[in-house]
Amino acid sequence: MAAGVAAWLPFARAAAIGWMPVANCPMPIAPSDKSRRQDELIILNVSGRRFQTWRTTLDRYPDTLLGSSEKEFFYNEETKEYFFDRDPDVFRSVLNFYRTGKLHYPRYECISAYDEELAFFGIIPEIIGDCCYEEYKDRKRENAERLMDDNDPENSKEGNLPNLNFRETMWRAFENPHTSTMALVFYYVTGFFIAISVITNVVETVPCGIHQNQKDLPCGERYSVAFFCLDTACVMIFTVEYLLRLFAAPSRYRFIRSVMSIIDVVAIMPYYIGLVMTNNEDVSGAFVTLRVFRVFRIFKFSRHSQGLRILGYTLKSCASELGFLLFSLTMAIIIFATVMYYAEKGSSASKFTSIPASFWYTIVTMTTLGYGDMVPKTIAGKIFGSICSLSGVLVIALPVPVIVSNFSRIYHQNQRADKRRAQKVQKARLARIRVSKTGSSNAFLRSKRNGLLNEALELTGSGEEDQHLSKSTSIIESQHHHLLHCLEKTTNHEFVDEQVFEHNCLESGMKNYTSRSPSLDSSHGLTGTCCSRRSKKTTHLPNSSVPATRLRSMQELSAIHIQCGEQQALSTSRSSLNVQSDEALRLNCQSSQITTAIISIPTPPTASPEGSLPQPSSPSQPSAGVNIVKVSAL
Amino acid sequence: MSGCTRRCKLGVVMFARSVHRLVTGTLNKDKAEDELEMTVVCHRPEGLEQLEAQTKFTKRELQILYRGFKNECPSGLVNEDTFKQIYAQFFPHGDASTYAHYLFNAFDSGQNGSVKFEDFVMALSILLRGSIREKLRWTFNLYDLNKDGYINKEEMTDIVRAIYDMMGKYTYPVLRDEAPRQHVDAFFQKMDKNKDGVVTLDEFIASCQEDDNIMQSLQLFENVI
Description:
Largest interface: A-B, 65 and 64 residues
Strand content of chain A: under 5%
Distance between the termini of chain A: 24 Å
Shape of chain B: elongated
Shape of chain A: elongated
Oligomer: heterodimer
Mean pLDDT of chain A: 72
Radius of gyration of chain A: 41 Å
Distance between the termini of chain B: 75 Å
């Protein structure tokens, strides 16, 4: 239960009077507020800054430091205040949590300082309100990454993985050149050869033959042998590198599909195709085109440069903005080209021969290039031309800042999978909230069983076990549980766990199947009777609900077999007359006094009929030799 | 024809105005300002002394009650959704919205859709400090959904079903559909003295006073504040 609405608990309890005439059984006793403290102000002195609040405000969250008795450790007798030697600024948020029920994360606070304060005061960060939760999670993730980055170089320096086999060492060397000298050498060698190859491609086309013919010969044809040798050498190196990477890759299939390997393949393919093909006139044209692909070798540099990779990544992630840019440009181009064509149609010797021909003019104008090879001559053409260039600036300027900001964001954060992980975190958070909600309902079931234990122990007079077993529930919790108890009594049904519910469903299913005659006496061996079912339950429930220590202490009390959550089926009320025993409905009506409710049941075979005991409150005769005492203390 | 020219003139004026706004750069401002004008209704209760006179609470108790009330509803009014939300927090197992709806109607004495602090405190005063007769009358008022002075079986079934809804799905024994109806039948058998199918206020009070359990339970919540 969110303690923020604890103030409305009195109202909810008062409204429970509405159930009373409907209920057929007496209600459980209300928990008495033993320590009827007046609402008093308490002073919290945090490093000199004094905060004051009501005691009941702090009591709303009894499982935190300030709400529990743990704060007594910080009580200062002389000044009659609670002194905490912590940061007063962060304490403000902590105290506001008690006041409003929402925990906020201030942006100016350092994330680790904030986490420490929360841990000190016993508040879990998951309850940060939605307004601040994203910010908190982002900062936390950044911090974690920074820590990870700090740790990584340390780890990688040690040769801490001696049991990597050769293949894995090679792969690590390829991916991380700083791991060993060999890797570094390899890295630089490949980089050098990429540069050589690119420069070779460029220089090949420079005219260096001076006087041989009328036209200058490109160097590639003059020194063709030298260039061929260089090219061969480079391709050798690249091929060897590619094959080595292919060998070392942990998942070859994935490696082949990756972008870098495709670039590698495209870079070396033309050479091999050129080797294979002969000097055939027809295909030499195609062959020349293939040589263009050699320029892709320059992309191999992206393995060596982080910035290039981020640029590529940005372009990939800004695909929508780029797409929008392209689309709007295309629209504008078509519009203006059409307009210019029709405007210039009249003028003689106009270069605007068709609409596609005007595309060139429009593009050059909109990007403010203005080559001047196509110029409008009519007045209308000039007017529309000027509008075109003005709008060009606008259309191009709009998506560009988005791309720029994307780049800077990615450059700083370096991850896009953040958003996907954040979605998982959001799901996890919702799951946690759901768990805490069921936690509150489970708290009631747990305390019910603990309450039974307590009362049972009181009955048997082992008072010293009391403190040991009684859980310190706050007064608000006990009142809330009392309210839920009254609801159970009103409806004659109990709250149970999901597992128990399933169990019951199964059993009742089985039972309906096996038992034909619903008569009371035939209840021995079947699963549906109270007795056998109850005995089954005793093994089931204590393990699941009662923690081990309490179980052990239970067993210390000899011969008391506590049945958690089960109640003796005695019928008193009129409504039970309508209940058939084949359904094995359990009615929880007993007299509310504890002392009269000890019921002893003789050991199983003699049927203990459930629906037909006439007097509910009389059985206080423990029969001798009984080794099972069922205590129902409600 | 004159209407047409009038509309045209209006259109031209609007157009000129929007061109003017376009030129001076104030085109979309009005809309934003319109939306900001929210209505924040705030209600303050009457003074402490008057409330103390009208209810059976002491000043201190009224202070504590008001602080809690104001915390959840800073505007001073509870509307039905907030009420349902608050009430649902106490019953996480099941669905408390139907019963909260009936409760809200019982609290909202003015039937205007919102509960003020005075209504809240008056009802609490009856429930916690009132006489048996007053409590029973409040309860009768709660059950009488259409406020006609009679409780018939349908109203009672609705109420009981709403109560059972609060239990949720995971109950022991398993909740069957006939359970509310059986409950209501038992109730009518007890309460409806002259067997005319409806329960009047007097029958209700008389029957409740005969039943010890109910009498005892009504005393249960007296020390809630």
